[in-house]
Predict the structure.
Amino acid sequence: MPHVERPSAGPPGPLPRPRPLARREARAALGFLAVPLAYVALFHVLPVGINVWVSLHAGLPLITPGQPYVGLENFRRLVHDDVFLASLGTSGLFAAGATGGSVVSGLLLALALDRNVRFRAFLRAVIVFPYMTSMAIVALIFLVIFNPEIGVLNYLLYRAGLPAVPWLTSPGMALASLVLVSVWWETGFNMVVFLAGLTGIPDEYFEAARIDGAGALARFRHVLLPLLAPTTFFVAVFSLIHSFQAFTQPFVLTQGGPGNATNLVVYHIYQVAFTHLNLGYASAMALVVFAIVLVASGGLFWVWRGAGEY
């Protein structure tokens, strides 16, 4: 009878993990996740739920019990509220200027300080320092800088033989001044994020493009920007959210004026809630702003995905 070789069974597979060990690991994982999940539930999910409940009532339901339930009436009022709609438009202009300015300035500074320049560490620290300072302090500093009589900027214009600029008293200049303050404050953070993104890009890509004859502009457009797209997306979304949350700038510098030129939407919500004491209506405004920021962030993500750069 001929000998028939049996096929080899191969190397033995991994032994099944004991069930008690898997349970202990699952309990340990839940234990580690318990604190952050509790934090998110307590300080993010619960406040949003309370805000939704308050938006369905009139007046101050949390302070004065028995306020009537009005359903979606507060949201229907927003459609015809010209002041609220104007504040949304003002916030949109402010967000576009502050986001675009801080992203571009942060990228340019990161590119400049990514090289071996003298005092690189010192320059990075100086640029990041404003972001480490409270916005209230920054706004008070710029309140002096923009002062029409003793301000540094108008003094420099005077020494140069140029007329003074109404930084905070002209409707057009007031909003531009708030954008300038926000860009100056946030540029340092964006620069640090861009520097982190640049360190993750291998030099081989630029060397290969240089060997193929690509110039500096071509390497920037076709190599650097596509590889830096995820970082740019994060910085743009983060700056956009910050811009729509801006409150301290108009509160300290302009109080929403002149007129309503700098009446940003969060400052307007503050006025409705704590000056007019209509917390239900202010909560409805806050939910609309939350939805707008969510849609705008999703729109940025869609643009990046559609362009094939994320």
About this structure: DSSP finds 13 helices and no strands in the chain.
